[in-house]
Specification:
With 191 residues, the chain is mainly beta. The chain contains 1 helix and 10 strands, in the order αββββββββββ. The protein has an 8-stranded antiparallel beta barrel. Strand 5 and strand 6 form a beta hairpin.
Length: 191
């Protein structure tokens, strides 16, 4: 994953967050987190047969910036944010003739959250991700759309537990129209 753009985005988030932190009381609009889970890969592999694989351990790291909360209807509290996400899969075994696959990448997403109770919130995200993969010894890279749903349970004003389901779309040479499904459990910390 390129480190210079990621570092620049994090610094921009920190500096812009410091300027507007006053509207968030005693917490910052900046959050970070990580999650681990399982990734499933599916793609059409010639003659109508599908390549499917599931790894034994994937993960993602994320950092985001919350914009000021707003109300769409009476009693609602919605928060939108921009998130940087890094993805990494374990090794996935595909059909015998296609060997194994592994993925990694980074993405930028827009997330909207709805607070349902004092502790529980649900969210949806959409964005773009650049994935690079190794398939049967050959490396490829692709950019595609991402989407996801999730929930967070706040343990206190800083720490929350998260559960997310993400879908990433990409194309890798002969494995066009690749779909990657990622189910994770993790934690997030709001500064």
């Amino acid at each position: 994953m390129p480190k210079t753009p990621l570092l620049a985005a994090i610094l921009l988030t920190v500096f812009s967050g410091a300027a507007s932190a006053a509207s968030y009381g005693d917490t910052s609009p900046i959050y970070v987190g990580g999650a681990a889970g399982r990734m499933q890969f599916s793609a059409p592999c010639g003659a109508g047969d599908g390549c499917k694989g599931q790894d034994n351990g994937s993960g993602k790291l994320f950092a985001g910036f919350n914009f000021a909360p707003f109300s769409a209807w009476q009693g609602s509290e919605l928060t939108s944010s921009v998130e940087l996400v890094g993805y990494r899969s374990g090794k996935m075994s595909l059909a015998r003739e296609h060997g194994a696959a592994s993925l990694r990448g980074a993405g930028l997403s827009y997330r909207i959250s709805s607070r349902e109770t004092d502790a529980l919130s649900v969210h949806a995200r959409a964005g773009l991700a650049r994935l690079s993969g190794k398939f049967d010894g050959a490396s490829n890279a692709s950019t595609g759309v991402t989407g996801g749903l999730g929930m967070a349970y706040a343990l206190d004003k800083h720490l929350s537990l998260t559960a997310d389901y993400d879908v990433l779309r990409a194309g890798f040479g002969a494995l066009a129209r690749t779909q990657v499904h990622l189910l994770t459990l993790g934690a997030a910390y709001k500064f």
